[in-house]
Amino acid sequence: MAKIIRKETRKRGIIGWFFLLAFIAFNIFMAFGLFAGINNASKVQAASDAERAGQAIGTVLGSGFLLFIWLAGVVILGFFVLLSRGRKIIVEETVE
């Protein structure tokens, strides 16, 4: 008895590839920026307790702002990546 196997594929266009590459590049850039910012903030030597507290608060605020920008960019670019997928093509194979 033959079995029919259906495989779903999608083919992206030029705009779809542009949005996908922009999405990947944005994530790499934001990850690099976040880790570089935290690394640079940890290298600063604070003399007093007030400076250490201010450094910790500033690092948390800066990291939180970068994470917010990252999340907003991922949502927006991810939406465009999702919308720019190609049409669904169903390939049928008959396996005996």
Describe what this molecule looks like in 3D:
The chain is of the alpha+beta class and 96 residues long. The chain has one domain. The protein is 67% helix and 17% strand. The chain is built from two helices and two strands; from the N terminus they run βααβ. It has helices at residues 14-42, 49-83; strands spanning 3-10, 88-95. It has a two-stranded antiparallel sheet. Helix 1 packs antiparallel against helix 2. The longest helix is centred in the C-terminal third of the chain and has 35 residues, at 49-83. The protein is elongated and about 80 Å long. The model has no long low-confidence stretch (mean pLDDT 91).
Q: DSSP strand (E) fraction? A: 15-25%
What radius of gyration results from the CA coordinates? 23 Å
Please state the overall shape, judged from the principal axes of the Cα atoms: elongated
What's the number of helices?
A: 2
Report on the biggest sheet. 2 strands, antiparallel
SSE series: EHHE
Give the N-to-C terminal Cα separation. 6 Å
Q: Number of DSSP strands?
A: 2
Helical coverage, percent range: 55-70%
Would you tell me the structural class of the helices and strands? alpha+beta
Which features does this protein show?
single chain, 96 residues, alpha+beta, two-stranded antiparallel ribbon, 2 helices
List the helices and strands and how they pair.
Elements: E1 3-10, H1 14-42, H2 49-83, E2 88-95
Antiparallel strand pairs: 1-2
